[in-house]
TrEMBL record:
This is SOUL heme-binding family protein. Gene3D superfamilies: Regulatory factor, effector binding domain. It comes from Eucalyptus globulus (Tasmanian blue gum). PANTHER family: HEME-BINDING PROTEIN-RELATED, SOUL HEME-BINDING FAMILY PROTEIN. Belongs to the HEBP family.
Length: 204
């Protein structure tokens, strides 16, 4: 019942809060090892969260883990997603999430990421994925501006929150160093008012 009401019962990434104000926080996240999958929603019948099953199967969340050991890997939270737009005139993925869909601007690409448990200090310590779509890599420590919100984190809501956060950060003299990612902390069965979501923008 706890997860229905938003209780977070699994490991979360280590971070230090450097600054907190009424609108947002500045956090520094420790280096981590992540497993991620990149895809277009059309590969999963239009489901923007289709990569979740791929990653969950890799760690063994739904049964036997699909990795070379095989070893069950504990689930952590949040699940992190980043959206980008694929230009129709080139196979190169353009930087940054869409600011709203435009007719003829190409298909959206999504990268979904699980931060693996802190016991894995390096990528080579992590069981090798059997699904070649899953990439395991090390991520350097990084500083983010973060805004937290509840409810259903639709693409439109996340983009609106990110635009407001960017305005606050730039107003307060922080230099934005990339596009936003969306972090969702709860499973789909958590009641929307009790969900924890965050929009995170990297800063220098």
């Amino acid at each position: 019942m706890g997860m229905v009401f938003g209780k977070i019962c699994v490991e979360t990434p280590k971070c230090q809060v450097l600054h907190s104000c009424a609108n947002y926080e500045i956090r520094h996240y420790a280096p981590s090892v992540v497993a991620e999958v990149a895809y277009t929603p059309s590969q999963f019948k239009g489901d923007r969260d289709g990569g979740f099953t791929v990653l969950a199967n890799y760690i063994g969340a739904f049964g036997n883990p699909q990795n070379a050991k095989p070893e069950k890997i504990a689930m952590t939270t949040p699940v992190i997603t980043k959206s980008e737009k694929i230009a129709m005139t080139t196979p190169v993925i353009t930087q940054g999430p869409p600011r709203g869909r435009r007719e003829g601007s190409g298909e959206e690409a999504v990268t979904m990421r699980f931060v693996l448990p802190a016991k894995y200090g390096r990528a080579e310590e992590v069981p090798r994925p059997l699904d070649e779509r899953v990439v395991v890599r090390e991520e350097e420590g990084r500083k983010y501006g973060v805004v937290r919100f509840s409810g259903v984190a639709t693409e439109g809501v996340a983009t609106e929150k990110a635009e407001r956060l960017r305005e606050w950060l730039e107003r307060d003299g922080h230099k934005v160093a990339g596009e936003f990612v969306l972090a969702r902390y709860n499973p789909p069965w958590t009641l929307p008012p009790f969900r924890t979501n965050e929009v995170m923008i990297p800063i220098e």
